[in-house]
Amino acid sequence: GAVVSQHPSRVICKSGTSVKIECRSLDFQATTMFWYRQFPKQSLMLMATSNEGSKATYEQGVEKDKFLINHASLTLSTLTVTSAHPEDSSFYICSARPHGNSGNTIYFGEGSWLTVV
Amino acid sequence: AQTVTQSQPEMSVQEAETVTLSCTYDTSENNYYLFWYKQPPSRQMILVIRQEAYKQQNATENRFSVNFQKAAKSFSLKISDSQLGDTAMYFCAFMKQGGYALNFGKGTSLLVTP
Questions:
Q1: Residues of B in contact with A110 (CB under 8 A)
Q2: What is the mean pLDDT of each run of 10 residues along chain B (114 residues)?
Q3: How far apart, in whole angstroms, are the C-alpha atoms of residue A94 and residue A34?
Q4: If you measure CA to CA, which chain B residue comes closest to A108?
Q5: Which of A63, B38, B41, B66 could disulfide-link to B46, CB 3.0 to 4.6 Å?
């Protein structure tokens, strides 16, 4: 089946630094990718929708200058957490919709644990 | 905006028994998709079952089946012959037709006991 790979799976960074998380579709082209955040024992909260070649669409309450999303190719979207703080520590997970897909097929990455110390 | 409600934060079932997880949703859309995802401790999101709103027939995948009541906006998941490996968080999700994102409920933590 289709595979979406996230990297790194775990990252620890210092407060004030930036960290980049990659989301790659390995065997299909993804026109649209979605970034979610999940706090412990909570649900997945949509942060933004990333379309290849255009600016991401952020959900209400998500700071676009803090969570930079780039979707430069049909197989790669990146999430950069800028000037990270401990409250940004969370599980981040991406999903991708194959190019030309009718709409209801979504593939998830394995997720990335971010710890800000 | 669409909302998805899972009213059971935690449930427990004995191995080999049947359990039903509830989900209701609110939408003004007529065409949409509904999903149940399983999230084990590894945090990997695993698609359990999906339902197209235009289909009246309830979806079934082996031991997993849904009871889709469109008028009532209800989408429950039945797990038959529960197995220890079914222990996980289960999320109900809604997607508008047209390439939109999944909108998740708060989840139900299911524990299958020996």
A1: 42-44
A2: 92 98 95 96 95 93 96 97 98 90 96 98
A3: 5
A4: B45
A5: B38
